[in-house]
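re: ur question from yesterday

yeah so i grabbed the chain u mentioned. its 262 aa long if i counted rite. heres the sequnce exactly as i have it in my notes:
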Amino acid sequence: MTEETEIRELVRQRYAESARRLAVSGAGAGSCCGAGGSCGSPSGLEGNVTVDGSVVFGAGLYSDAEAAGAGAAVEASLGCGVPTAVAELHEGETVLDLGSGAGGDVLISARRVGPTGRAIGLDMTTEMLDLARKNAEDAGVGNVEFLHGYLEEIPLPDGSVDVVISNCVINLAADKNVVLAEAARVTRPGGRLAVSDVIADADMDEETRADLAAYTGCIAGALTEGDYRAALARAGWTDVEVRPTHRVHEHAQAAIVRAVRA
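ran it thru and got these structure tokens back, copy pasting raw so excuse formatting
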């Protein structure tokens, strides 16, 4: 098994487990950070909040207005931000959510782009796709589609979407360069990227990076801001903006990353 395959399988197992818990409980299943659904003591986090009570992961990041109409799908969020809040979606656009999980950001996007638009969720975890489709049906949202596939091999034609969003998932991929290039391939010229992701501190220690298990916690695989900007440029993205939002680990922080397809 290659390192890339091993990382992918670790992530798939982690999110399949989360989906199964969500399907049974109907409640949040922790965060994307760390074994057992929390970041644990090294990061100063307990569950989805810091020791001072600040929310850093999950549904608590969404305002009531932002989450309106998405119901259980948002409650099941495992992300580190709210990409739909900065994606500036318009009526009639086609939106692709990379690593769509339980479908919360897809349902929000679908309502923003309206009946003439389309929202597509891409996920590699069958259990999450089943949950997302049920959430869409329960919410009565019809202009959505959930696809099985990998971020490195997006099953869509060139230039077929207007906006790519993602919520704390790109950092989990073994090769971010390929993911960002694929995102650029399927986005029309002038289209937009608006993702929430984890950005590693420049001085992250090698012990943390070497901890393969941390890939399922969004930390070890994260790029630094400089590396992220360089990867976006290589992939064909311009007008790059990286705006940190809050710390999610002693060695990393969440950020909004936006760019325009050249």
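noticed a couple things. The beta strands are 45-46, 49-50, 94-98, 118-123, 144-148, 161-167, 187-200, 223-224, 237-249, 252-261. also The radius of gyration is 17 Å.
anyway ttyl
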